[in-house]
Structures are given as C-alpha cells and as structure tokens.
Amino acid sequence: MSEKQSDTYVIRDLYEKPEKIYPRQVHGIYARLRILTVLLLLGLYYFAPWITWDSRQAILLDLPARKFHLFAATFWPQDFVYLTLLLVICAVGLFLFTAVAGRLWCGYACPQTVWTETFLWIEEFVEGNRNKRMKLDKQPWGFEKIFKKTTKHFLWVVFALFTGYTFVGYFSPIRELWDGILTLSLGPWEWFWIGLYSLATYGNAGKLREQVCLHMCPYARFQSAMFDKDTLIISYDEKRGESRGKRKKKSDYKSKGLGDCIDCNQCVHVCPTGIDIRDGLQYECIACAACIDVCDNVMDQMGYEQGLIRYTTEHAEKGENTHFIRPRTLLYVALFTGLILTFIFLVATRTPLDVNVIRDRNNLFTEAFDGSIENTYQLKILNMSQQNNRYQLSIEGIDQTIIQGDTEFSIEAGGVLTLPIRVSAPSEELETRSNDVYFKILNLNDPESVHIAKAKFLGPKK
What we know:
By secondary structure, this protein is of the alpha+beta class. Helices cover 41% and strands 21% of the residues.
C-alpha cells in the first residue's frame, strides 16, 4: 500500500508483523496454582485413555461401531440427547463461572493456555530464561543457536506427536494404535488425524501462542457481555501506584510525589499476551495472575504492602461492596443446577434398550374368521448394554390381545434384533378405530429394567 506525500511515495505496511513476546517465568502462589492445574489437566488427558474397565478401554469413543464407552456406561447415537444436554451444561457453567470469576478459565484451564505453558517450559529448559532467549534470537546463526533451536523444535515436535497420538487414542483403542504405529499398519484416517492434531498443537502452542487468544478465540470478544461491576478482574491500583518512578529502596519517595509503582515493567515482562495491566482492563488479559505474583515479589523487596496489582472488582476499586449473589448469578445457578439434576435423572433412569415399532402400512388391519382384528408390526430392538440379555415381550392397552410370534428372545450386547409379530384383539374390545397399545419389553436378566413403546392398533370404524 502506498500514498503520495510531497511528490514522494511513502510505503506503509498494511499489516504489522506482531512482535515476539518473551514471557518471564515467575514464582508465587498463583504461579504454583497454575503449574498444579497444568500438571493435573495434562495428566488426566494423557493417562485417561490407558485406564481399562472390564477388559476394555474405559474411555473410548468408537465411531465406526457407533458406541461411546465411558467406564461402566455405553452410549449410542440414540443417546445424542445426553451429549447435547452435557454441552449445554458446560456452556451455562462457563457463563456462571465467568460472571463470578472473570477469565480464570482462560488463565488456568483453557487447552491453549495449558499447552502453551508446557511449550514455554520446554523453550526455557533448552534456551534459558527470558534474557537468554532474547539474546539468542538476536545473535547471528552459529553452532549454539542452531543446536538450541533444533533441540527445542525437536522436543516440541515429539511432544506434539504424543499429543496427537493420545487424541486419536480416545477414538481408536490406544494400545492397538501404538502397535499400528510401530508396524506402520495404521489406516489413512488414523495417520491423518494424528498428523493434523499434532500440527495444530505445534502451531497453536509453539508458534502462534498468544495470537490464538488475541485474534482467533471468540471467547475474549463476547466475554464483556457476561462481565459486570461485580465480576472478578485483575486490576492495578492507580491511586496507590501513581505517579510511577525509579527510586532507591530506603528513599522517601512520597515526598517526591511518587506512588508505590517503581516502573520496573516486570508486570509486562511476565505477561503471556504482552499487555501492560497498568493501562486498565483489556480484553487481551487472560487473568493468569502472573503480574500479581511478580508485583508482590517486587513489593516485598521494596518493603511495600502487597496488592498493588490484585484480583478485585470494579465496585471494590471504588470502595463499594461486591455482590457475588445478584440476579444474574442466581439465574445462572438455578439454570445450571436444574440442568445437572435433569442430566442425572435422565442417566439414572436410562434404559439401555432402544425399541422402534413399525406398523405395516400396506395392510391397515385384517379381520379373521372368528371376528378378531389383526395388526402386523415389525419391532427393531437394540440392546445398548454391555452384556447379552434375554427379554420377554408383552402388550397392554387392549384386553384379551394375543401376540403371534416370539415373545421371548435373546440379543447380544450391542446387537439389533428385527422381530416381526402379529397382534390380534376381539373387535368388541376396540373402542375406536385407532387405539393406543403399549409394547412392554422386560429384561429377564434385570427384572427392574423395563422398556415401554407406544403404538397404534387400528380396527374398523365404529
């Protein structure tokens, strides 16, 4: 892009290349909490696929077989309502958490934050602290720089590949997946997804880092709709900190009109998104509290009171009371609790059996020689449990009905049985042309497990 100025052309870049951020490691209570959270979440992610349950993988989303194993429970495509409800619960929970605690999810538990933190640990392990990394990037290419950069990227790639392998291990048995990798016998889709997820991990956590949070993540954009003046934020105490200025530790800085901020810029150096929290609340802030830890350390060294940068709310900054219990949070809590109770109830009362009753539409009904009316049905029964079961079929809704066909049958775990039957009933028992009947299927292995399917029984006009 160019523009003419004083008979000359000035060349200007339309997009400025983002400056690389070198976050410095910090020590403090929030840093320890963040490390603990990262280790816990990564441990769950990498360890969970290796847990076995009844001689099979405990957590396995078996897409080819259309079965989702979750410890003792097995879910099928017919159970999609549970997944939908679970996603709604997570969304409402995130809204509630954000309304109360701000962006703590971003700072501690977001996958982008967790993996970026891990990649930064690897980078610091190989290249050194912040100053050494900056110096290394500025120096010309030589043996030391090539060796360190190659080592870092090699470790990044290995870690990313292991992440991609673990991800696919949730959809394909992870032990068989490992054997397939060693023998190079995996299918093309498994190779594709391992490579794609590994590349995404390497690119997002290793290369893009904070750019994902600043430009790609929609959460930072709509979070303001969930914030209010009682939401927890990280804030710099401007009244106490200003005016900023360098000073000696024992100096009488207040007589010079200085505040507690010594303008060391350490809060900027530790920020993973490169912002200056002293400029006020910004959407780039992920509430990781690294600036709080480093500022408290500086305050301790200077002999000042901690809390120049701290978790607070807009009301608290103005000396007003913070209200964690307010209409918005009460609504979220009620909705969140109701959804969880509904989910628990549905799962607890879930019958691991799916029955689809199909009437013969070509022949509405048949009148037998004895005057009884017959309807023909086809039952498709899916055993969604993890064991073979034997079932008993009966019918209710019309007195003196007779089922012609198998009323006791067995279905293997995950099996589907197509059962054609004929149902007859005396014509005098039919009150209307269309009557409700209920097919009752009892699990003989578990008498408390009963599934009822509603259908229509048709007869002549009355």
